[in-house]
Amino acid sequence: MSSQKSFFDLFIPQERKDIFAPLNDFNEYLKSSIAAKEYAYRRTLQTPTSSKIQVAEFGQMIMMGSNNYLDFANNPQVVAAAKKALEGYGYGSGSVALLGGTFELHRKLETSIANFYQREHAAVFPTGYSANVGTISALVQEGDLILMDMYAHASLVDGATLSGATVKFFQHNDIKHLEKTLTRLRDKFGGVLIVTDGVFSMDGDVCVLPDLLSIKQKYNARLLIDEAHAIGIIGKEGRGTEEYFNRIGEVDIITGTLSKAPAGIGGYVTGSSKMVEYVRHFASSYIFSTSLPPPVVGGLIEVFHILETDLSHKAKLEHNIERFAGKLRSLGFNIGETITAIIPIIIGDEPRTKTMAKEMAEAGIFCSAVVFPAVSKTQSRLRISLMSSHTDKEIDRVLELLEQLGRKHGVI
Ligand SMILES: Cc1ncc(COP(=O)(O)O)c(C=O)c1O
């Protein structure tokens, strides 16, 4: 049995008198897609996330769908630091950061983050999502204008919506489009914030930072970049997008998550002390949400120590990116402009994407099928993420299978 509807069909708004009206249709879709073994989500991991994993539904798999890019999630040094923090400070923080939930560990982590980006100060949020929502909604208000890259992460979009400002999207990395919009609208608004991912989460490409910096200067705007997928990955020392373009210190607001390369959980905003303290006291997602648990914070402090002192994990990842992306390009796959650990294998339509993800899983390869609404409906893809721990043998096995399936389904 194959599921009849695509995910896209379920997003067409229907007239209704009950908010529960779409529940039956969605559950039917879910059941049929699980029965057809096309449901590629919420697989159950039974081992730590690394290049080889045990999955309840499929057995042993090569993990090609984790953002644990530098394999810190189960790094012995990081785990030891987390255990030490667990023993020293307990399992939970017990309060929001502004009240009883700031431990000396949280302050140390904030200093590590600020130092890493060469900034005055940083504030740590419960997640990257809440860092983006909180930062934007604290700084921007009705009467301001937000200009956002159309591929920006959902958390940035949600923060912009919550702020009450007018939000306009510009074509992905299209500075001409951004400038055209600014020329037309700049005088009609108070403050202007330009928002983009540093490295784009579904495409692995990098924002056009030098152009964005010129534009923000020219039009008296501020610039926010989300470094979720850039931290530890791009730039000579892994300091992200600013370092990649040799423009350290020039972006007004840097946000990011501690859940990808840093492999824990949490989010941050970093920049001037004045800006960070303002956000800390005006972001609802900071004020009204409990601070990170001490073991996670202890682990993250160690992660920043490793990021500052040991580039071997980054070098191994770079080797893997070159081996994997180079071969895919030579085979004729469309993997866009990626230069990072995120490798989008763009298939186009949803059914073929789902079928390929299913066949990959049956052959023991874990990768994500990304379809609408995460990407536009003609841009469905397999999203592969590489880790420093992948061996050449594992990478070659995945390449071999992709070549076989790519030919079978007319993708190459
Ligand atoms: C670009 C980007 N920003 C923010 C987030 C949210 O981070 P978190 O998972 O820590 O909430 C993610 C991913 O989840 C992301 O890809």
Which features does this protein show?
412 residues, alpha/beta, Aspartate Aminotransferase, domain 1, Aspartate Aminotransferase, domain 2, seven-stranded mixed sheet, three-stranded mixed sheet, 13 strands, 41% helix, binds pyridoxal-5'-phosphate
Give the secondary structure arrangement, pairings included.
Blueprint (H helix, E strand, L loop, with lengths): L22 H13 L16 E4 L3 E5 L12 H14 L14 H13 L4 E5 L2 H12 L5 E5 L4 H10 L2 E5 L4 H11 L6 E6 L11 H10 L3 E5 L14 H4 L8 E5 L9 E5 L1 H10 L1 H4 L6 H16 L2 H20 L10 E7 L1 H13 L2 E2 L1 E3 L9 E6 L6 H17 L4
Parallel strand pairs: 2-11, 4-5, 4-6, 6-7, 7-8
Antiparallel strand pairs: 1-2, 3-9, 8-9, 10-13, 12-13
Helix pairs in contact: 2-11, 3-11, 4-5, 4-9, 12-14
The site of pyridoxal-5'-phosphate has 14 residues, from helix 4.
